[in-house]
Write a structure and sequence with these properties.
Lipocalin; single chain; alpha+beta; Beta-lactamase; 14 helices; Class A beta-lactamase-related serine hydrolase
Length: 457
């Protein structure tokens, strides 16, 4: 599809209707130029139309911005990737004293620290929110041993944000504004709700697409999680940030935000993902890495309270695509958009075979737990199922995540599940670490087995 705005807008309008997405903005960056369009409404309660200047929460795409701040500090000689966190934050601690002493900045940016990653704690609205959050990690246990596997870790990025605060003397919010947004001229990129309300702001929607989708009553996650996912921005601003990375760390006016070496290092392979079907095949420093038909892309997804965001960057063709949404079946919509706009062949959607293989179910039955999530895997009528229970603050904010899933075999240790109302299948992967401990990998997170279950009947 061409970069013609009218055609993009018409296509986006058709897609949000088909996938029951209340509103969306779509932007395409090609050869340094950005075209952005919008469709739908910012809230089904107010019916305010979405426009290209509307701001949406970009969720965990924020992590690439936080990683960029860290790499700026590396460029400035104030930090090294293999610096132990405790060298910068002397009071830092987690429950495992060995991890406290040895976890590094690189571990934080590559999700290999093993620190339980979904510790959502509201430490208030003050400028000390991130500092107080990091203090609360002292009793947090490991999901897995340091560097033993990959497990998506929001907590680690809040720690990275605190490192930024200590070394710059700024709050993380001010560092984003002064060290990235201002040099790039991004006047609609904000981190606080009182700033977002000055713009045309989207509201998330929760519920089953096509059934009970309605505006959420909570607008954003706590400030303590800012470095992991609290940026709100126009789609144009997200692509301007991507354009800086495509340009090797330089803004269009020549202002350098990153060295060429640091911008390149962020995209380079750091760690493989246990189950490549989950999202990308590997991780860089902040960036997710994707292999689409032999083409290397980087990007990130983001999810907050009823909002979803997607960014993909194809360096070899100087192309980036960003989709920001406020509810609905966004995964199916994303696939259709990106397959066309990225101008490369996407991998086929993950799905079980038409004739699923017979597998031994006994090794997988049991309870798998981490902060905020308990997953019970059990037999039902000769098949395998899992029941995910979300608790704590996340359970209060996202109650629809608590549900039961049927698991369809793909291969030994590999299953597929599809939440009710969704068009896309999700992978569920069971594996064993070198020390013999057993894990369930789902949602790009490693869930350790804490209790073996009864044999299936």
């Amino acid at each position: 599809m061409t970069m013609d705005a009218a055609r993009l807008r018409a296509w986006l309008t058709e897609l949000i209707g088909r996938f029951d997405v209340p509103g969306a903005t779509l932007g395409v960056l090609r050869d340094g130029q950005i075209v952005d369009v919008a469709a739908g409404v910012l809230s089904r309660a107010t019916l305010v139309p979405a426009t290209p200047d509307s701001v949406f929460q970009i969720g965990s795409i924020t992590k690439v911005w936080t990683a960029t701040l860290i790499m700026q500090l590396v460029d400035e000689g104030r930090l090294a990737l293999d610096t132990p966190v405790v060298d910068v934050l002397p009071g830092f601690a987690v429950a495992d004293p060995g991890v406290t002493r040895t976890v590094t900045v690189r571990h934080l940016l590559t999700h290999t620290s093993g620190i339980d990653g979904d510790v959502f704690v509201d430490t208030g609205r003050g400028d000390d929110a991130v500092e107080r959050y990091v203090e609360r990690l002292a009793d947090v246990a490991q999901t897995h041993p340091l560097d033993a596997t990959f497990s998506y870790c929001n907590s680690g990025f809040s720690v990275a944000g605190r490192i930024v605060e200590v070394l710059t003397g700024l709050t993380w919010d001010a560092a984003i504004r002064e060290r990235i947004a201002a040099p790039l001229g991004l006047m609609a990129t904000v981190t606080l709700p009182e700033d977002a309300i000055l713009h045309r702001a989207a509201v998330g929607h929760l519920g089953e697409p096509g059934r009970s989708l309605a505006p959420t009553t909570v607008w954003a996650l706590p400030r303590s999680g800012g470095p992991a996912g609290r940026i709100t921005a126009r789609v144009h601003d997200v692509l301007a940030f991507a354009r800086m990375h495509l340009a090797g760390g330089a803004a269009p006016d020549g202002t350098r935000l990153l060295s060429t070496a640091s911008a390149a290092a962020m995209t380079e392979h750091q760690v493989d993902v246990p189950d490549p079907a989950a999202i990308g095949d590997s991780w860089g420093l902040g960036w997710i890495r994707f292999d689409w038909d032999g083409h290397r892309l980087v990007g990130h997804d983001g999810g907050t309270v009823g909002q979803r965001a997607y960014l993909r960057v194809l360096p070899e063709r100087d192309v980036a695509v960003c989709l920001l949404t406020n509810g609905g079946d966004t995964a199916g919509m994303y696939r259709e958009l990106f397959a066309e706009l990225a101008d490369v062949t996407m991998p086929a959607p993950f799905a079980p075979p038409a004739d699923p293989p017979a597998v031994d179910l006994r090794p997988y039955v049991g309870r798998y737990s981490r902060a905020g999530f308990d997953t019970d895997v059990f037999a039902r009528d000769g098949s395998l199922a899992m029941r995910v229970t979300v608790n704590g603050l996340l359970g209060d904010l996202l109650p629809e995540l608590s549900r039961e899933h049927l698991l369809v075999p793909v291969a030994e240790g590999h299953f597929a599940t599809r939440p009710e109302g969704a068009t896309q299948w999700e992978p569920v992967f069971f594996y064993t670490l070198a020390d013999g401990s057993r894990y369930l990998h789902h949602g790009v997170r490693a869930n350790p087995r804490v209790e073996a279950g009864a044999e299936p009947r």
